[in-house]
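Input:
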Amino acid sequence: MGNKRSQYLMFWVVAAVIFLFFFLKYVSPVVFQVLMGKGHPMPTPSTLMMWYMIMGILAGLVYATTSNQKFVDFLGFLLPGQGTFLKFFLQKIFFIAFPLVVGWFVYSYSLPGAASPVELRIQHPTLPQKYEKMENPFREKDADIQRKCIEEGKVLFQTYCRPCHGSKADGNGPFANSFRLRPINFQDPGTIATVVDNYLFWRIKEGGPGLPSESTPWDSAMPAWDGDLEDEQMWKIIMGEYDTAGVMPRQREKAE
Amino acid sequence: MIKLFKNKVVNFGLIVFSVVAFYKIEAVNAQASHMFRTYKHEVPQKLPENQNAVADGKKVYEKRCWYCHGITGGGNGPAAKTMFPKPRNFTRNEFKVRSTPFGSVPTDEDLFRIITSGIEGTAMPFWNTISETERWQVVYYLKTFNEQFKKDTSPEVLSVGNVVATQESIEKGRELFKEMKCYNCHGEDGRGNGPLTVAMQTQWNMPYRARDLTQSWNFKGGNTAGDIYRTISTGFNETPMGSYKDKLTDEERWSLAHYVESISKKMASDVVVKVKLLESGEMPGNPADEAWGQVTPMEIPLAGQIIAHPRLWEPSVDSVMIRGLYNDDEIAFLVEWDDRTNRQEDIFRDAVSLQFPAKIPDSLKKPYFGMGDSGGIVNLWQWKAYWNEGFGSVAEAPGSEPGSIMELNAKGFKKISVQPPEGQDVTGGGVYVNGRWKVVFKRALKTEDEKKDIQFEIGKLIPIAFAAWDGSNSDAGGQKSISAWYYILLEKPMPKTVFVYVLIAVVMGASVELWFLARLRRFPPKLEEDQE
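Output:
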């Protein structure tokens, strides 16, 4: 005990929390950009940021209290006495920084705030019952007919959906920049690959306005195509859409 | 307390909860995210051009390109009907972005670059998503559509190099812009509103629009000085944008490029429009007022309205710029956007509208962003350019006529009502200067009609959305450019008391710290089994 490492326990914990802050603020947006293949950084929403920071601080405290030995070392950092000049120096920095950080918090909270609101939403709410039993009439047809439907569907997709969802079904159509809730990137494995044909059928038929309120229908530019497209066309578009995006619908559970 | 932290189950629960929260909930990206297609210069090692490569290129083409460019390369694929500009017709030599002389076909590298980059402001996607091999193959296949590729096998290629801009070269470029009559097409301020462009668009019905040189994101062949130098040197085939290689020296073309680069601006967008407190003086009622200079403008990207019938697939206004000011009684907005023409005809008129919810929402829930819905009424302020001629006649709105402002309410696309004359509270007007509309809206912060009119409150985020119409693009009614919901915020002035609070906080922080340390020193933590 009393080795060099544990003398600085508190310093390490605080450093880890500060590191976490910078990671969430500056590194993670880029990491998620790369992971999710987006063309822009994905800033951590401020409420989530707060949660992670609370978690981080708790984790630090949990670590510092895992044994009494650690706890003693942890607080020991603040005590005067034996120690190198470095420890003395860091101690003083802590003493000065703490009130300043408190002041900074108060200052930044009382600024005339212009933080954009976090607009949380659920992308895949439950499918309304009405659509649950529906089947894509073309999926059961023989391979030739299916091939034809896919081709027709692709052309329809390019005609009606392309300006938003993009020619490659990657969510980068020429209009995509204008909708803050961006048109969905269907190549992303977290989107249409996680649902089945009739889910898409519902979304295409009823569009944004058909969403429940936890999915912020008021922000969705997804048109309700009912009335503009025939049901058959929609089923074909769905087949063309999966094909263009290069993904498959989720496999249905076979068990009955 | 310590016990609680030690409880592994609690910790585990918290971690799982936060991971789930991140996974399940997709935050609407608060930062407006733009992914403009930009011209990329790098070209990798070329693939050998042979029969196999062409055959493979055909496969790529018939999988990815034919919907737009047509199965025989004629630019008339089935999806092309809703596009402007039309997809390239590969059977003609109408290639725009080239390093070869005017009238020549592009090099393989030119084709590779433009296919990789895509073309902003058009339907042409970027194809860096397919492999380099596939891109080379499709380039070789494209070349089979046009015999000219076989004839000009080694065209003279412009080498661009790099010349640094100076104040002088920019000034020289400004003069050349006048001397070479670039303004005939591009307009005096470069907004693409020159008299020739207007005539081509409105009288001769030609599909050419000179570039708005102030919008850097719309440059097809790249917006760096080098790219602009290349464009000026080689021109765009089969468009009015000619080559100036023989008319101007190398240095002069660089100067022009530097000048064009200096007037082209990035889109400065954000989510919250900050409405500034006007500390003194009258609220500006006119776009030329100096007070607007105090406000940092923000730009909002617009898209064609294709959500409900009748749709606008080929929008001509792609962004608006907004500023806001308020004082104790009033609020005013200045909205500006580029429009190549001031051409009004009966229902086809230049117009712009601001949309607010009729009531500031208490929660996240808002009316539908496109004209509200049965559950949420919106309040619209709509300005229209002046027109007062007989049926069918076309006229420019004169500078002396500021146009008219109307207040409406809507509960959906089909349920729109104009407020009665006594309910019309918004004043203001617009002017058209050098290819740009500037429109002011002004109203009292509060009105009597609380049901139908938005009542502004300081310090609250108030949703706002935009729409714009270009008469000469035959925009009218639902055929318009639209935006998503954004926010305005009437900024509180920074209270002087803030510093007092901060001071108190620092003192409190310091005292708590001292108390804690004093305690800690008096009763230093000890290990229970402190012998060992």
